[in-house]
Fold this protein.
Amino acid sequence: MKKIFKTSIAVAMTICMAAAMTACGGSGSASSSSGSAPAAQTSEASSAAGTIKIGGSGPLTGGAAVYGQAVKNAAEIAVEEVNAKGGMQFELKFEDDAHDPEKAVTAYGVLKDWGMQVSLATVTSSPGAAVAPSYAEDKIFAITPSGSSPSVVFADPDNKTGAYGNVFQMCFTDPNQGSASAQYIKDHAAIGTQVAIIYKNDDNYSKGIRDTFVATAAEIGLEVVSEGTFDDSNAQDFTVQLGQAKDAGADIVFLPIYYDPASLILTQANQMGYAPSFFGVDGMDGILTLEGFDTSLAEGVFLLTPFSADATDDLTANFVKAYKEKCGGETPNQFAADAYDCVYAILQACEAAGVTADMSSDEICAKMVEQFTTMTFSGLTGAEMTWSADGEVTKSPKAVVIQNGAYVSVLD
Amino acid sequence: MKTASKLFSPGGDKMKRGRLISFALVIAAYIIIEILLKTGNLSSLFKSLLVPVTCYVVASLGLNLNVGISGELNLGQAGFMSVGAFCGICVSGMLANTITVPVVRLMIAMFCGACLAAVFGFLIGIPVLKLQGDYLAIVTLAFGQIIKSIFMNTYIGFDADGLHYSFVESKFKLQPGGKMLLNGPMGATGTQKIANFTVGIVLILIALIIIYNLMISRSGRAIMAARDNRIAAESIGVPISKTKMLAFVVSAFLAGAAGALYGLNYATLVPNKFDFNTSILILVFVVLGGLGNMTGTIISTIVLLILPELLRSLQDYRMLIYAVVLILIMLVTNNEWLKSRVKGFTSGKAKGGA
């Protein structure tokens, strides 16, 4: 008889589940959850006049949450600014994907139910690669602020064929950064000639940059004398890798990694009395604001980054000010800058193409693709950016060097 | 353990009814969802959850056979899923031009993935299941970590010349038109999505048929006897390690099939996905669903996977609420007072009904 009880529970569960599903299906388009404050205020009034719904997902929880939060905050700032100007109105809904492809696909479902018309895709690469086919299938225009792997825009990333066509990137691709770094070091022999690389071999981003760096180095005759690897489980002690680099006679250490482990490497190299040049990529950005890190150790570190928060132009200064106000004094990193640019690039394309909110996402997509492949855009992370039909961005990386605790552009 | 064994003592009408409920539940859910799909009432969110939910259900059913029925703790179910997933992706990638019917290719990929996972299970089981105690837990925990590392350092490519592979770094150049099936830490990218919900439901039904038939068979009774009292079972001639091996290998087989289905549902899959946390997640589904209770496992897996998605409207508090719900479920299902009330309620009803 216990079974009868169980049966009734089972039946009740099934009914509940079915009810939940239909409920969500029905109300999906009607619900407009609070994306950003002004958007929520105006959504009632302006829905007739036209608010374009921008969706996006990124890690708001978990290990990569820093990047998702940065993108969310910056995108909200941009949307607030756009809405305050009048004219084109945006509404943003940003979902959590915990840097997990599976969650990113469900987050995409949530956004689609909400009625997303244009998207910021995802913050990180693997989730981006997982949702990109859905964007292509449903014909929703997407531009990712920081999903830098080629697999985000190509169905067949190995041969760089089968581009989705409506998924675009705001950031450099990983391979671009690797080859640009190798080329830069080769051209500036004063920094160093014997290269050591320390990279994280279980990380898509780090490994991707390292691979193209090594390939380009072999092509142009740059000598890589030592390679050290680490992964999640041993990202605390780098004395072995540094010792190896030192023994091999490396006078420049290339660090295609995020700033957290990089700060440890700089500290430990200093303790060992090993003082080569250090060369980072965009993941190094943020090292100066890391708590508890002695920034004097980062003196003389080179990095290639599209954005530096210390730049003095109006655009950057205003953005940094707005970001600091919103986030309690936190300095924005390049993820935030990329997201901010994404929103403005969408705005520019929408205005140029005459997109209105009552258009279907299909129509908007076609117009946006046409705009993005023909327009040039200048923003925080570069001037005169253009996009190829495949969705890859062309912009020139800026080399900066850290002097007196600030980024200084290297002029050459 | 004792109550579980009493509940699921083989044979009898009671057992049969329990099995029927499981099947009825799955089929009813399938029919309802298909109707919703056909009438266009299912939201995109739930559409995207259909296949992963079936995958996790099958993996949890397999784990429940191992943990609940055979009584051996397995902390590496995600490892077996990852073996199945990457094997399935490779097989599907290689056959992409030969077998163009997606369903057939999916079946073959799932079968290969399941078999490879079972082989791994068998190899691990040989030394470990001869031991008494928690050694299987330790070894499967290590297995999950090792297999993740191995996949992170494996490069498999396929082109007109056939299959290429290398370890640690990619040492081969593919012909134009070739495809990297497995690319080290980047995992599999650009996978053709051929998984579908119907195959997932069929897989759940197959898993239930396998598990229930195993449970009422002679071998199944031996497995439960070995769990309840190893010495007594040994004394009447039950080959302990062999019977435990059977449960363990079937469990790995199901995890492999689930993994292959999962892998072929996404355009990309990284080895990091199947880490220790995923193993624990599956174990949580099993424990909250009830050890040895297949219907409970199905329900708990579905509820616990869908819950965080339904809580999305709570935004930042989502994971907090999820954790609280998990704790509440644990408290409620282990509350003696509540249990006795439920028992009193059902037995009272039984008297009245009979």
